[in-house]
Amino acid sequence: MRNNNFFIKTAAAVAAVAFTLFAPITAYASTEYGYTYNYDYWGDVQESADFYNVCKVFTSSDLGLDVKLKSPQGMFLYRDSIFICDSGNNRIIELKRNSAENLEVVNIIDSFKGGSGENTFNNPTDFAVSEDGNYFIADQGNARILKLDKDLNFLLEIGKPDDNTLDPKLVFQPNKLVIDTAERVYCIATGINKGLVKYENDGTFSGFVGATPVTFDWTDYIWKKFASQEQRAKMVSFVPTEYSNIFIDHEGFIYATNGTAKGEDLKAGKADAVRKLNLVGSNILVQNGEYRVYGDLYFGSGGGYEGPSQFTDVTVMDNDIYTCLDKNRGRLFGYDDQGRMVFAFGGNGNMDGYFRQPSAIEHYGHELYVLDSLDCSITSFVPTEFGNLVYDAIEKFDQGDYVGSGDAWREVMNQNGNYDLAYIGIGRALLRQKQYKEAMRYFELKYDAKNYSKAYKQYRKEWVEDHIVIIVIVILALFLIPSGIGRIKKIRHEIDTADIFVSGRNG
Amino acid sequence: MFLAETGEEMIANIKPDMTIKEKYIDSLKFALYCMTHPLDGFWDLTHEKRGTFAAANTILVLTLLIRILKLRYTSFIIMTVYWEDLNIFLYLASILFPLSLWVVGNWGLTTLFDGKGKLGQVYMATCYALTPYPLIQFPLMVFSNFVTVEESQFYSVLSALSLVYAAILVVVAMGQIHEYTAQKNILFTVATLFAMLVMIFILMIFFSMISQGVAYFISLARELMFRI
């Protein structure tokens, strides 16, 4: 017993010494990088006021589940319900969102009624609810997409697309899916890189949409020309990359993330980390920011992580701000409709607000819900006062309340003077209020050349209109005075040398 | 016709009894003549002693000055400056270093191959050839503050023009002061560029040798201090 005590005391002393020795270092490390940050015009990391706070982390026991969550892959938010694909346990859990800090299990779906063959799931990876309330499940292990009504009656089973170009041996593995308003299914399937697999609402395959453009280096191309058949087989083939996840926004546009693009391709704009697909599958994502949309700008290796952000999911709010989830460094990146970064926060770790292997993100209003498949938890984030102000400013601008938007941006600027969007936001609000000179000042502060030019063009026009009389006088003077002087000199010369006077004098 | 006349006038105007100040102003004005009549102008620069070192230095200082002023007064639409990373001396060296390499390299080569120009004359002619840079860049800098993004194309075209103009003048000037034919002149321009590369290479070797040598003696001294 005494011995035991001695050990405990020694351990405590060692711990205390270690703490005093290492505490300053860790404290320094934690102040070096804050939780929330953003990039300025130069691409420098700017500490930011927190945009989101963790409201609560829900683990299996918090939710009161008897069988613990196992490797959950997909999440879908429909009205007040959150559906989680508990892939490892072959079931889907329906939670009711009472508030951001109160999620309640209302239903556990592990089988359905009717249909031929298996009526249980095998590794369901994604779930979606259509506008009519029908359930769609990517039942990956059973190589099918299921359509059920809300009472879990079988409606439709969708299988491998009957396309001649597909390898017949390929097993259909639907991974992620979205449903549009007409109940058409868009699906990402493992091993199919021609884009999204599109099915009509009766389950017939109708084509592939939105394949990523193929990127390759010309040196690789030349090498390939000279390589033998065997060598060529070993080389990386130039094929489009598979998407990692999809989301359909309130306007029916599909946002697709690409989690495997190379860092240099992303920087050069040859690959997109996020694409916004229209009906014909072309990318219409606006990228007007100083930097393209690919999460972290610097990929330096550190803490065991290297390479670019790998987006694994995206969610789009009603104000067109979309949040991408990076599974590489466990971060969330928010972008506005112009492709400018609104916020970035998070990290890898075990603390609240940090992730181990985030797999899905959903939003409810402005709240964010992140599913971690390794930690088997759901983290709910609520915007801080600062976050709410930014949203308020953006939404007011979209509604045409420019005065209100400008005031909100000013308050944002007061809370975080390093926030570039605030300056540009104030400038844009002033521009709409026809205060060009003031607007120019704000745009110049944050090097927004495009908006500055817009304001300057108006300002110059007004200036010219106000000073037109003076301008005309000055121009006339510039032309008339030299020619007038020339003429006077000429007349004088003529007078001096005129015959009459000369002869008059003589006479 | 008008310009040619004034040119002749200028040559005829050489007065041996000019004061230093008059000579300086006259030689500075002559830079404009060199700009518009490079062949004639650069010939007279050395052969008729129309150029002065004071004027050459003035043009060089003006060039450096405009280069620095541009940083601050060009519109941010055209040029944004990351002030935190800016070293003004390095920035000036970006003109001075190639210039001195050019002058030394050109003189070193041409002096072996019948070049008539002396080292000082090569320097003077090169500085005179820089005239278009301050002359075009200064109004351009003012102009940049009155344009929008779409109109900034004018800026980049004119800015490039000033550089090309100066480069052509440098080449022509070298040909004139060395009394070279056009062919030989172009040959030696390329050779000078090559000589500059060689000099950079040697300088790099030199500096790394020096730093290693210094490091050797420092470590030797440390060792001694350690033992004694």
Considering the chains and any ligands shown, give keywords for the structure.
heterodimer; A: 507 residues; alpha+beta; Neuraminidase; 2 domains; six-stranded antiparallel sheet; 27% strand; elongated; B: 228 residues; mainly alpha; 78% helix; 0% strand; globular; disordered N terminus
CATH architecture of the largest domain in chain A, by name, is: 6 Propeller
Largest sheet of chain A: 6 strands, antiparallel
Cα Rg of chain A: 32 Å
Work out the strand percent of chain A. 25-35%
Q: What is the residue-averaged pLDDT of chain A?
A: 88
The side-by-side strand order for the widest beta sheet of chain A comes to 2-1-22-21-20-19
- The structure class of chain A reads alpha+beta
**Topology, number of strands of chain B:** 0
Helix content of chain A: 25-40%
Mean pLDDT of chain B: 90
CATH class of the largest domain in chain A: Mainly Beta
Largest interface by residue count? A-B, 12 and 8 residues
Secondary-structure-based class of chain B equals: mainly alpha
Q: From the alpha-carbon coordinates, what is the Rg of chain B to the nearest angstrom? A: 22 Å
Ranges of chain A with pLDDT <50 over ≥5 residues?
17-31
Description:
The complex is a heterodimer of chains A (about 500) and B (about 230). Chain A has helices at about 1-30, 60-65, 220-225, 230-235, 265-270, 385-400, 400-415, 420-430, 435-445, 450-465, 470-495, 500-505; strands at about 35-40, 45, 50-60, 75-80, 80-85, 90-100, 100-110, 125-130, 135-140, 145-150, 155-160, 175-180, 185-190, 195-200, 205-210, 245-250, 255, 275, 310-315, 320-325, 330-335, 340-345, 360-365, 365-370, 375-385. Chain A is built from twelve helices and 25 strands. Chain A is an alpha+beta fold and about 500 residues long. The longest helix of chain A is centred in the first third of the chain and has 31 residues, at about 1-30. In chain A, strand 4 and strand 5 (about 80-85) form a beta hairpin. In chain A, strands 2-1-22-21-20-19 form a six-stranded antiparallel sheet, with no helix packed on it. In chain A, about 30% of the residues lie in helices and about 25% in strands. Chain A folds into two domains: about 50-385, TolB, C-terminal domain (Neuraminidase, 6 Propeller), CATH 2.120.10.30; about 405-465, no CATH class. Chain B has one domain (about 1-190). In chain B, about 80% of the residues lie in helices and about 0% in strands. The radius of gyration of chain B is 22 Å and the shape is globular. By secondary structure, chain B is mostly helical. The termini of chain B are far apart. Chain B is built from nine helices and no strands. In chain B, helix 4 runs parallel beside helix 6. Chain B has helices at about 1-10, 20-35, 40-45, 55-75, 90-110, 120-130, 130-145, 150-180, 180-225. Chains A and B meet through helix 10 of A and loops of B.
